[in-house]
């Protein structure tokens, strides 16, 4: 044991009173998490917020029943014991670590929370031989399983097919505005704008290491520039495009990756092998861009392919001609 840090108790060593106290604190924590989810979603996803409000109320009701049971069996004083005090007990991430979760991820997280608690109590009940403890754990497992069933009922009550479809469309739109559009712009910029300088240097020097250094510098520099530009020109408040740092990150990273894709082959010492591989990578990058435009931006694939591949091929040709001349 580390000095100054108390050891965690094993679940099998807890008394019935401590198990009941642990259940009470766990119910209280989960209610707070659901209310935080509801507050976060209320502005854009009112129906889902209502579901989490209802789930928080359910957690409160179960906590009150558990407190009444504790009062009847053990008195008014509830021992202080929480999840983090018990070795192997299921944990909960701090809510601030989940701030980037989307709507579907939050729904999945909540479902997992309930199922995790139910499974834990079921397994704990199966391992004990004490009749009273077994009954207590079985009751807790049933209560958690009831939460799962009730969550389904709340979804049916507050989140009809129309509301869910509308929220899913809103979540998809937000994902596209915050991540896809800036990332696509960055990938296009990194893939296309670095073609001319990289291939111009390659054919002018036929030195693969120099070409790689120029390509890496151009890619990283373009990534930094695109990232800061995207983050600085729109704070997302009026446009609804989401957090500027998320958009800047998506744009900057994808810009860098777009340029590095056809710079990395020049780590190969043989010039023509490296150049052939780089040209193949370029056309893969351009087809990926066309696919993303078709998949997320509803741009007809043929039109996207003609625009991107033709434009990239012209820039590539320009670099080769300038460097070769």
Q: What are the SSEs and their pairings?
A:
Layout: E1 9-10, H1 16-41, H2 46-74, E2 86-87, H3 103-127, H4 131-158, H5 161-193, H6 195-205, H7 208-233, H8 244-261, H9 271-296, H10 301-324
Parallel strand pairs: 1-2
Helix pairs in contact: 1-2, 1-3, 1-4, 2-4, 3-4, 5-7, 5-8, 5-9, 5-10, 6-7, 6-10, 7-8, 9-10
3D structure, described in words:
- By secondary structure, the chain is mainly α.
- 76% of the residues lie in helices and 1% in strands.
- The protein is built from 10 helices and 2 strands.
Descriptive key words:
single chain; 325 residues; Ferritin; two-stranded parallel ribbon; 10 helices; disordered N terminus
Main sheet, how many strands, which sense, barrel? 2 strands, parallel
Strand order of the largest sheet: 1-2
The residue fraction in helices comes out at over 70%
How many separate helices? 10
Number of domains: 2
Q: What is the 3D shape?
A: elongated
Beta-strand residue percentage? under 5%
The separation of the N and C termini measures 71 Å
Total beta strand runs: 2
Mean pLDDT: 79
**How are helices and strands ordered from N to C?**
EHHEHHHHHHHH
Return residue spans where pLDDT drops below 50 for at least 5 consecutive residues: 1-5
Q: What is the alpha-carbon Rg in Å?
A: 28 Å
Helix-and-strand structural type? mainly alpha
């Amino acid at each position: 044991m580390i000095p100054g840090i108390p050891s965690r108790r094993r679940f099998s060593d807890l008394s019935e009173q401590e198990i009941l106290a642990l259940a009470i604190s766990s119910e209280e924590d989960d209610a707070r998490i659901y209310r935080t989810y509801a507050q976060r979603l209320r502005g854009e996803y009112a129906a889902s917020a209502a579901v989490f409000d209802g789930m928080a109320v359910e957690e409160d009701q179960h906590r009150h029943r558990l407190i009444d049971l504790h009062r009847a069996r053990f008195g008014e004083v509830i021992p202080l014991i929480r999840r983090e005090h018990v070795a192997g007990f299921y944990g909960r991430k701090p809510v601030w670590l989940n701030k980037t979760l989307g709507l579907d991820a939050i729904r999945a997280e909540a479902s997992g929370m309930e199922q995790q608690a139910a499974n834990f109590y079921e397994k704990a009940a199966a391992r004990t031989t004490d009749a009273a403890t077994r009954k207590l754990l079985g009751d807790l497992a049933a209560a958690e399983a009831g939460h799962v069933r009730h969550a389904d009922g709340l979804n049916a009550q507050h989140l009809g097919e129309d509301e869910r479809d509308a929220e899913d469309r809103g979540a998809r739109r937000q994902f596209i505005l915050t991540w896809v559009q800036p990332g696509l712009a960055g990938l296009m910029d990194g893939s296309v704008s670095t073609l001319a300088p990289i291939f111009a240097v390659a054919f002018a020097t036929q030195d693969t290491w120099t070409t790689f250094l120029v390509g890496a510098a151009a890619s990283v520099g373009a990534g930094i520039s695109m990232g800061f530009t995207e983050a600085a020109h729109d704070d997302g408040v009026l446009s609804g495009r989401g957090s500027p740092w998320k958009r800047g990150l998506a744009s900057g990273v994808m810009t860098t990756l777009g340029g590095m894709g056809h710079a990395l082959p020049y780590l190969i010492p043989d010039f023509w092998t490296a150049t052939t591989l780089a040209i193949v990578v370029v056309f893969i990058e351009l087809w990926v861009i066309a696919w993303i435009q078709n998949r997320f931006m509803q741009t007809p694939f043929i039109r996207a392919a003609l625009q991107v591949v033709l434009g990239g091929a012209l820039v590539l040709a320009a670099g080769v001609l300038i460097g070769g001349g």
